[in-house]
Amino acid sequence: MKIAIITGGSRGLGKAMAISVAAHGQDVILTYQHNKQDAEAVVAQIEQSGRKAVALQLDVSDSTSFPAFRDAVKQALKQTWNRDTFNFLVNNAGIGIYAPLAEATEQQFDQLVNINLKGPLFLTQILLPLIEDGGRIINISSGLARFSGPGYGIYGALKGSIEVLTRYMATEFGSRHITANVVAPGPIATDFGGGAVRDNAAYNQALASRTALGRVGEAEDIGGVVASLLSDEMHWINGQRIEASGGINL
Ligand code: NDP
Q1: CA 175–ligand 1 middle distance (angstroms)
Q2: 20 to 30 A Cα–Cα from 152, which one of 63, 95, 103, 192?
Q3: Candidate CATH numbers 3.30.870.10, 3.40.30.10, 3.40.50.720, 2.170.120.30; the one for domain 3-244
């Protein structure tokens, strides 16, 4: 049994990842920002499947809170598993803000940077000593790092940056046999972006028609990809970007 920390595990992709990772036999620490009740419901679902799970509060956009979060992780590891280390870190929590480049504000830029780039970097840094040698890091990017979605230029640029950082993580952490990879989802029907992919039928259909498989993704599509990447068989994949989009813009 191994232990995965998944940020943003209360809803959407992170929830599906937590459930799928547990179904693959791992235990989970999942984080939430505001929705404690939703996070605890995910914990209960995982516990019903016979695995252990803990929910911890975390604001990924506030790096001053990271030392206290690290201490909470240490405490959870000790209390629940009698361990000092965990195995997998999935930097999933992120937000999108519609901000066309002609109008985007510095405040929007800073908000996006803090949660989508600065947060995952410094969270990884502070948790790194707690990741067991041979562990794995997965950073969640987006198809928008590679193709344009008008209004999402800053978001896409930051997702591109996390992809570059991931390659450097793979290079710099390799001496400890820790791998780092990116999963880049295509459009997925979640609350993300105000739920536009899920709730706006015309937008959903337009995106679906750009995929080879003819539909947008569901959170579970990505949960399975992440759980598979954390399986023993995938240990030789390192520094790579896996796009999970049903084949968009091929
Ligand atoms: P959701 O909006 O459905 O869920 C967001 C999750 O992140 C929630 O668990 C939320 O916690 C948490 N969260 C939000 N802000 C913060 C914060 N400041 N600190 C810590 N946690 C936070 O998003 P998705 O599941 O759709 O997206 C997850 C990831 O996937 C993001 O990185 C996104 O960029 C990426 N992605 C999404 C795509 C999509 O189409 N949905 C496509 C490509 C990439 P709480 O419930 O407490 O608010």
Answers
A1: 31
A2: 63
A3: 3.40.50.720
